[in-house]
Amino acid sequence: MHKSEEEWRAVLDPQAFAVLRQGATERPWSGEYVSTSATGVYRCRACGAELFRSGEKFESHCGWPSFFDPAQSEAVTLHEDRTLGMVRTEVRCAACESHLGHVFYGEGYDTPTDARYCINSVALTLEADDSVQ
């Protein structure tokens, strides 16, 4: 999915545009999905692609929603990020290449993988499971 910067600006609010298209980060504890426990599918706010499922979300107490695995291994792409004077691994939506956040390994969380996908809430939408009240 390829859109011009003008097209992205027309469909994303300023904060979503800054995060998704310019690689910004929302303030910790400010996002709507930090502490939600609703079940469903988390999608890319820019293109609607399925990225994560609520079953892979866990409480990391880091200030951003955390997941231990993408919904499908090909849903996201990983890229070396050398900004801020350190080496990190950036997570992008595979469908539209929007910036989602970063993934970290070896932090000792009690999850099935050795990964914490630290994702900006503003990069996501939650399609809640209607069967859960």
From TrEMBL:
UniProt entry tagged with the keyword Oxidoreductase: yes
Record keywords: Oxidoreductase
UniProt cross-references to InterPro entries, sorted A to Z: Met_Sox_Rdtase_MsrB (IPR028427), Met_Sox_Rdtase_MsrB_dom (IPR002579), Mss4-like_sf (IPR011057)
Enzyme class: oxidoreductase
NCBIfam families documented for this protein: peptide-methionine (R)-S-oxide reductase MsrB
Keyword Coiled coil recorded: no
Catalytic activity: L-methionyl-[protein] + [thioredoxin]-disulfide + H2O = L-methionyl-(R)-S-oxide-[protein] + [thioredoxin]-dithiol
EC nos: 1.8.4.12
Organism this protein belongs to: Streptomonospora halophila
Ranges for domain MsrB: 5-129
Ranges in a coiled coil: none
PANTHER family: METHIONINE SULFOXIDE REDUCTASE, METHIONINE-R-SULFOXIDE REDUCTASE B1
Name under which the protein is recorded: peptide-methionine (R)-S-oxide reductase
Superkingdom of the organism of origin: Bacteria
Species classification: Bacteria, Bacillati, Actinomycetota, Actinomycetes, Streptosporangiales
